[in-house]
């Protein structure tokens, strides 16, 4: 696959860094990550994945990258395009918590600043307005609805500050 739906491109022709045992150890500490080595690459996870035709790395390949300690796994489309439908996890004959591992990878990628632009915009919108999407007046008018009520975003902003969700990296201003 040479192009993907997401912002990331194919790994075709890319040379990967050497295996990083520390990264594998870190990934195995993720929720569900203790089962990483149980994956025997049957690819049932990838076969059932609804976004498998949109990503540059399939789920089973992502799992192998983790075992091999390839930190480039954080650069894959799969990390951000996973729909969290849990199909991969349900299909896994080894019972690996794949979706939970992918959630952890999103957190790791986020901390390293490897985040799609749309995520950053959505996060700011949620912080500022309490909404991921701000409907336009004409959309509401077409449906016969009144103005969108203003939300009290104080609790949302407090949660974002308490969890550090407004910072991409340590040292970033909130």
Q: How would you describe what is shown here?
A:
By secondary structure, the protein is mostly helical. It has two domains: 21-111, Alpha-helical ferredoxin (Fumarate Reductase Iron-sulfur Protein, Chain B, domain 2, Orthogonal Bundle), CATH 1.10.1060.10; 117-163, no CATH class. Helix content is 43%, strand content 0%. The protein is built from nine helices and no strands. The protein has helices at 21-28, 44-48, 59-67, 77-81, 87-91, 98-111, 117-129, 137-142, 154-163. The radius of gyration is 19 Å and the shape is elongated.
Task: Give a nutshell description of this structure.
This protein is mostly helical and 174 residues long. The protein is built from 9 helices and no strands. It has helices at residues 21-28, 44-48, 59-67, 77-81, 87-91, 98-111, 117-129, 137-142, 154-163.
Based on Cα principal axes, name the global outline. Answer: elongated
Output the radius of gyration: 19 Å
Please give the number of β-strands.
Answer: 0
Weakly predicted, low-confidence segments: 1-8
Q: Quick one: CATH superfamily of the largest domain? A: Alpha-helical ferredoxin
Order of helices and strands: HHHHHHHHH
> What class would the helix/strand composition place it in?
mainly alpha
How many separate domains make up the residues? 2
Summed up, the helix count is 9
Specify the CATH architecture of the largest domain: Orthogonal Bundle
């Amino acid at each position: 696959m040479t192009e993907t739906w997401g912002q990331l491109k194919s790994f075709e022709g890319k040379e990967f860094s050497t295996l990083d045992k520390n990264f594998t150890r870190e990934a195995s500490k993720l929720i569900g990550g203790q089962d990483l080595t149980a994956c025997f690459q049957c690819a049932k996870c990838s076969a059932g994945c609804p976004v498998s035709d949109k990503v540059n790395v399939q789920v089973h390949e992502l799992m192998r990258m983790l075992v091999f300690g390839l930190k480039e796994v954080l650069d894959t489309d799969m990390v951000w395009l996973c729909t969290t439908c849990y199909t991969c996890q349900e299909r896994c004959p080894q019972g690996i918590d794949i979706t939970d591992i992918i959630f952890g990878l999103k957190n790791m990628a986020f901390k390293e600043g490897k985040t799609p632009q749309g995520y950053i915009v959505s996060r700011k919108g949620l912080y500022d307005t309490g909404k991921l999407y701000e409907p336009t007046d004409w959309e509401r008018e077409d449906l016969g609805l009144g103005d969108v009520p203003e939300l009290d975003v104080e609790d949302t902003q407090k949660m974002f500050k308490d969890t550090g969700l407004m910072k991409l990296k340590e040292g970033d201003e909130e």
